[in-house]
Specification:
Shape: globular
Number of strands: 8
Largest sheet: 8 strands, antiparallel
Mean pLDDT: 89
Radius of gyration: 18 Å
Order of helices and strands: EHEEEEHEEHHEH
Helix content: 25-40%
Strand content: 35-45%
Low-confidence stretches: none
Amino acid sequence: MRRKDREVADLEGQLAILEQCPVCRVAINDPASGVPYLVPLNFGMAAGPQSLTLYFHCARAGHKYEAVKACPRASFCVVDSSEVVPEDYSTDYRSVIVFGRVRELTESAEKRRAIELLAQKFAPDDSAEHRAAAIDGYWDSLCVLELRAEHLSGKESAALAEKRRGE
């Protein structure tokens, strides 16, 4: 990263940004044209001390699915805060970019765990019984994709970096 003074280098800080964002953008390679394909998605995540895994759901047909099958390399981006600061001709923002490989989850237990994470993120007050029934209702057609982070990069605007450092 060129601007080290704006880097959010620690995993804890990067996860805090990720937790604030309901929608990400995933960039994959279009196998037909070779042109990057960028798609907004809802996502869930699981983090360990030194790891991050992101989860998405999709149909087993279509542009996104075919692109991932042809080339599993992907990048993922979220922007937590994005407030225009007109007097500075700038924007206050916090963002995280993740690079990794995407794979389809085919084993029932890992697929169930991933879709439960997504469901709990977007409906945290739902009952376990209702959530299970909803998932079971579309289980057979459900495709869950996993992106394991190989590299993360976090960044924030100069003003937000100064606030974080207490300047």
